[in-house]
Amino acid sequence: MIKVMNFECFSEQGIRENNEDYLLPHVLEQQQRVFVLCDGMGGHGHGEVASQTVCESIYAFLSSQIDSESYEFTEDAMQQALDFAIEELIKVDMFVEEGRRMGTTLVVVLLNQFDVLVGHVGDSRCYMFDKDWNKIFCTQDHSEVAEAVRRGFITEQEAFNHPKKNIITRSVQAGKQTEIEANVLRNVSNGYSLLLCTDGVSDALHDTEMEALLFRPTTSERLSGVKEECALKSRDNFSAILIQMLQDEISPEPTKKVILPAEERKQEEIKDHKLGTYCKHCGTEMMVGAKFCPCCGKNILQPKAIKETLLEEDKYWDLGLIKVKKPASIQWKVPKIRWPFGIIVILVLLNGFLFYKMNHLSDKQGRDFTLTNYKYEEKNRQIQVLNNAMKNLKQENELLRKNVKVLTDSIIKLNGNEKLQ
Question: Which residues contact residue 114 at a Cβ distance below 8 angstroms, ignoring those fewer than 6 apart?
């Protein structure tokens, strides 16, 4: 059975005027198995009311489901808890600027006998660390920037510094049906830990910084280090729950995977749905070009539907009040090209051209090349002649030097004989 060995939490206002984060429980209870954290959406007004209402509703609903120690939480129970929270949120909903409804993000953790069930909506996160505080799991934010990272358009470092990273595509709002994303974490060992946090924490600390701060002797020291760093760096409210787990039973289900991600839910086939209208799933009005619903987070258009829509729109000239169909001869068509074969042919032709240029020079180039070689050989011959002349001159100079020496000796000898006489 997975149990809580150590527990700490904090919720700080930071530099904001009020704290719109809310979490439960504040104090660990016996056999605690439900943990919830919410971050109210300040731009929608009364975010603190939304976060507290949703957090308390989900916590109460799931806690009431535990009828025995062997009770197992399911994804359906988690979704039912969210649906219940949305109904409770409607009761306290307050319309503010431009009629926008109150909203909040959500992350919830449920402890079962052999696994941990994690659900989230928005950009509040849940991390799981091993006993050496290495990150082995993190929820995926529901935001356009996170989607760009998943698709490989930008790096995680670029996403961390992106100015629009807090614009989320899914949230809990009054009167809007929302689907919670669930993940099942298996093979939980002694000393494994969970960290639930709002974006005030994850935006202030890189994952590596978080690992370093948590690598401390006690739970209180770990979370106090995180809180101190957030107080210096965070631009928002910052809240977190740290849970260190104990597993005193061996899982009967052998598996090589530590994390089993949530199954991709089948989406309904979309027919006769145009960009810039309404979400087919929840009815939210969409902006032109949007691919994900900001309320329920579902895909608005499947790739096939997007392609067909764009192809259809390209067949017309938009003249304002009317659209005129283009002649068939100039309508945009997708060329069917066998790219791999075409690339191979181009490379072969290029290599052949280079080989020909290297081995078959034109007549003029050949004559120029021959003339250049002749001039080069003539220069070498002249240099050789000069070298031979210099060598002969040196020999003649040496011979002349010897003759001068002999002549000098003869003159000296002759002068000596004359003095004797």
Answer: 2, 186, 188, 247, 249, 251, 252, 253
Contact indicator for 298, 267 with CB cutoff of 8 Å: yes
Q: Is-contact 293 282, C-beta < 8 A?
A: yes
Contact 48, 23 (CB under 8 A): no
| Angle ∠(175,181,182) on CA atoms, nearest 5 | 130
Tokens 């909040």 correspond to 104
Contacts of 409 (CB under 8 A, 6+ apart): none
Integer Cα distance of 128 and 137 in angstroms: 5
Nearest to 239 by CA among 201, 193, 195: 201
Q: What is the pTM of this model?
A: 0.61
SS3 label, residue 66: coil
Q: How far apart are CA 7 and CA 223, in angstroms?
A: 10
Task: Supply the DSSP string of 300-359, one letter for each residue.
Answer: SS-HHHHHHHHHHHTTEEE-SS-EEEPPGGGS-------HHHHHHHHHHHHHHHHHHHHH
CATH fold for the domain made of 2-260? Phosphatase 2c; domain 1 (3.60.40)
Tokens 């991709």, residue?
A: 264
Per DSSP (E only), the strands in 90-166 are 103-111, 116-121, 125-129, 135-138
Q: For strand 116-121 and strand 103-111, is the pairing parallel, antiparallel, or unpaired?
A: antiparallel
Task: Provide CB contacts within 8 A for 317, sequence distance 6+.
Answer: 323, 324, 325, 326
- Return the domain boundaries, the chain: 2-260, 340-412
| Coil, strand or helix at 207 | helix
Among 147-156, 266-275, 350-359, name the one with the lowest average pLDDT.
Answer: 266-275
Rg (CA), the chain: 41
- Measured distance CA(274)–CA(279) in Å, rounded: 10
Measured distance CA(223)–CA(240) in Å, rounded: 8
What is the number of alpha carbons within 13 Å of residue 203 lying toward its C-beta?
22
Would you say residue 144 has pLDDT above 70? yes
- φ, ψ dihedrals at 154, nearest 5°: -135, 165
Confidence grade of residue 344 (pLDDT, cut at 50, 70, 90): confident
Using the predicted structure, report yes or no on whether residue 254 has a pLDDT greater than 90: no
Rounded to whole angstroms, the Cα distance separating 294 from 143 reads 9
The C-alpha atoms of residue 225 and residue 232 are separated, in whole angstroms, by 11
